[in-house]
Amino acid sequence: MFVFNTTFVIEGAMVDVWDQWMSVNYFPLIKEIVPGAVVKSFEVMVAKQGGERNFSVQWSVATPDELSTINRQSNTLLKLLTQEYGERCLSFSTILQEYK
């Protein structure tokens, strides 16, 4: 199993806007392109600094090809998010492979 993880750092006042953007844009497109992908969202439990909140969105997939597709499409979508909201909605992604 492979996981495409994106961590988001969201300005507190932007959480509802970010959540709506994800529900309307990000989740539907990725689910359409990679129908077998399973998505889970988590709030990262860290001390809140400066009113920011952190979230982890994880897509689990079975094949490297699916992982590559999510990586390409996610990068495109997240650039749009950054263009629209700037530093109020930051993100970075990591790729994980199940160990053992």
Could you explain the architecture of this structure?
The chain contains two helices and four strands. It has helices at about 15-35, 65-85; strands at about 1-10, 40-45, 50-60, 90-95. Strands 2-3-1-4 form a four-stranded antiparallel β-sheet, covered by helices on one side. Helix 1 (about 15-35) runs antiparallel to helix 2 (about 65-85). The mean pLDDT is about 95.
Based on the model shown, name its key terms.
about 100 residues, alpha+beta, 4-stranded antiparallel β-sheet, 2 helices, 4 strands
Number of strands: 4
Task: Describe the sheet with the most strands.
Answer: 4 strands, antiparallel
Elements, N to C (H/E): EHEEHE
Query: How many DSSP helices?
Result: 2
CA-based shape: globular
Q: Which regions have little confidence, pLDDT < 50, spanning 5+ residues? A: none
How does the SSE layout of this entry go?
Elements: E1 2-11, H1 15-33, E2 38-43, E3 52-61, H2 64-85, E4 89-97
Antiparallel strand pairs: 1-3, 1-4, 2-3
Helix pairs in contact: 1-2
